[in-house]
Amino acid sequence: MPKQILIIDDEELITxxxxxxxxxxxxxxxxxxRGEDALTxxxxxxxxxxxxDLRMPGLNGVETIGKINELCGQRNVPPIPVLFITGFADxxxxxxxxxxxxxxxxxxxxxxxxxxxIKRLLSLPT
Length: 126
What we know:
- The protein is of the alpha/beta class.
- The protein has one domain (4-117): Rossmann fold, CATH 3.40.50.
- The chain has five helices and five strands.
- The longest helix is centred in the middle third of the chain and has 14 residues, at 61-74.
- The model has no long low-confidence stretch (mean pLDDT 92).
């Protein structure tokens, strides 16, 4: 059964490109353009990994993942692995990312590195 990945990003070009890339690698992909939408989607159907932008309108990436982790705790399931993507360097957010035990890569990123990181987080062969 293919691994399910949820992409959370407000930039349609990014979500479209990442969806195509990940689907070409055999993953099932869902997309949310806002943190609030992602929470709804996770409540309805969990996923195996989340790719989230840090800066979005409404809930930012860190806030969204914090709420998803709370939901996982309420359901007594382990947190979902997270790969943050961002085009901004922000030491405060980077510290918050570490506290969530998540990984972060900076845009623009090499697609092979991105796919390798996804596979590493899912414990799949690279």
